[in-house]
Amino acid sequence: MLSGLDWLALEAKYLDRACDFYETHLGLSAVSERDGEVVLDAGDTDLVLREPGRVPRGGVHTHYAFATPPERYDEWYDRLADSFDLTEFDFGGSKSLYFYDPDGNCVEIGGCGAGDDPITDVFEIVLEVEDLARAESLYTSLGFEATDRGDERKRVRLGGPVALELWEPHLGIADARGGLHVDMGFSADDPAVVAEAVEDRACAVEKVDGGVRVRDPDGHYLTARSSSE
What does the alpha-carbon distance between residue 2 and residue 66 come to, in Å, rounded to a whole number? Predict the structure, then answer.
């Protein structure tokens, strides 16, 4: 149903400061700029930095993860260790490091990417939700599948075109929090099918250029645009 993550939007209090952070420390380059937002190239995913204002807003204190090829992971640790108080976690098959951007978003870099680029894509996004079962029901109706659960039912991990972690309010690794009013964009074979799948449980479904935009009960936005556009 959803075939790929096109973008993730973050809210930036000061756009120049946020752009400088991602360009200087992560080597991301701006590909476009308009109406109080800058789009950065993060491999197969666009990272959108957006000033407060119009709806949908970018996510606030969002925890999300970039993928890097396993053989480049140590390069990132060496590059960032002098500038940040890094937290590192070993998942058994791969390692991730965690640090914060100027707007309080917890940035993860995980050694699970495929390809040669230093950053290949965004592979995980964490959403804060009020009702875990309700959120899981909505996103599984869009083709995501549960792959892991927390021991105290504070979280569930969903596999799909991007890994979605649904968290009831709590602190995770590196004291990360799930994002509020996160704005995500996906490619879809048929956006109309996306709309039909959630019309009875979403707060709003509206047509946008080339697709549909869904607002879930926790205030997160998911836009699905035709992959043929």
Answer: 20
| pLDDT grade for 116, boundaries at 50, 70 and 90 | confident
Instruction: Give the CATH number of the domain where residue 61 resides.
Output: 3.10.180.10
Q: Which domain holds residue 163?
A: 2-226
Contact status, residue 62 vs residue 24, Cβ threshold 8 Å: no
What are the φ/ψ torsions at residue 134 (nearest 5 degrees)? -65, -45
pLDDT band of residue 228 (cuts 50, 70, 90) is low
How many domains in the chain? 1
What DSSP letter does each residue of 60-103 carry, written as one string? BS-EEEEE--GGGHHHHHHHHTTTS--EEEE-SS-EEEEEE-TT
Q: How far apart are CA 32 and CA 38, in angstroms?
A: 6
Other CB atoms within a 10 A radius of the CB of residue 158 amount to 21
Burial of residue 98, with CB atoms counted within 10 A of its CB: 0-12 exposed, 13-18 middle, 19 or more buried? buried
Instruction: List pLDDT tens digits, range 41-79.
Output: 999 999 999 999 888 999 999 999 999 999 999 999 999
* Cis, peptide link before residue 56, omega less than 30° from 0: yes
All residues at 6 or more sequence positions from 119 whose CB lies less than 8 Å from its CB, including other chains: 26, 27, 28, 42, 43, 66, 67, 68, 109, 113
**Distance of alpha carbon 204 from alpha carbon 74, whole angstroms:** 44
Tell whether the model's pLDDT for residue 6 goes beyond 60: yes
Single-letter code of the amino acid located at 225: R
Tell me which residue of 30, 27, 23, 63 sits closest to 46, measured CA to CA: 30
